Amino acid sequence: MDKPERESRVGRVGAWVTKLRSEAHQVERARAAWEAPEGPLAPYDHAPPRRSGLALERAARGAASVGLLPVGVLAELPAARASEDVLLSALARVRAGGAPEEERARLAQFDQRTLSTAFGRRRPAQALSITPLVDRFDLCLPDARAPRPAALERLRAQVEHDPVASEPWLRLGALRHPADFDRLLAARDRAGRRGDHALLEALGTHGDPRALAVLKGALHARDVDPGRGFTQRRLAADGIGRLALAAAVPLLCAALRDERADFEGRPGAGLGVQYPVRANLLWALGETGSAAAVPDLVSHLGDSTGSAFGGFYLPAMDALWRIGGPARSALERCAAGPDELPAANAVGVLLALGDPPSRWSRLRGDGIRAVLEGA
Fold first, then answer.
1. What is the CA radius of gyration of the chain?
2. For 340-349, how does the pLDDT look when each residue is reduced to its tens digit (9 = 90+)?
3. Cα–Cα distance, 329 to 322 (Å, whole number)
């Protein structure tokens, strides 16, 4: 199949699957169609068409990252703002012959991004326990430069030989083959603590929408010791965000409330200070790109004491920046509000979204001054 025909089929698959009622079903069927692009598209007429969301767009980026779609599909998609979309786009360009050094430099710049806050310029990565995109890129690079069938065969043999080694599972998940979902799931039954943590991470990067139920279970598990529980919930939150399903937003918002009520300030919560799960939940909401996540994120803009990393305002700001346009009206209302700290941090996000500092120079207060000086 030549490139123009392949690219036209991208649109055909997108139009076809958006007739499905469930967003998860849209993603699952599109992934299956892209795995066998020469096969027929069965009609599906039982629901009205609906606009595709970020989850389907991310699935298309993921298909390009493993060579199932041409890199030209990236031009048909909105500019990448979420971390996962930035990484998948970089891998797609490398697979199409792009220079790894250039992509690594772009990812390093994204990792090191800063925001102007009420406390000066801050780097969101300082407030999170998230693997840098550069590290994930380097992990996936050998497979992105090799034929995918050969890489799949090699990695499947490795995990069969050594099922507790973390790196092969992470690399296998990043190759996003639907047939590996059951393999990842079954491996949890015989994995130890470290191995299970790697499998949770791999389930998120694998991108299969069926992983949402698994990750939700890990997010709400109560039958593990505190140290493992905090790490498990953090990784489950990361994975849920990477799936980008709209159905994940209420789960993540509820988990924010549960984390504060059930774990923080309780026996064993000292571990929670080391692993502020709410920061990862806020990060995950930003990865969904959903307007429905905005109210919960805005409510954290004034939190400067909730974690050992200096509160939750910074991951909330970064999540709102990644959501972008759908967050603008709520940010403007917050910026015009009476509470100086959240107002200043809302202005910081708006500046990162392109507002000129002069638009907000009429506001008064030390926090606003710090934001404008840092812009």
1. 21
2. 999 999 999 9
3. 15
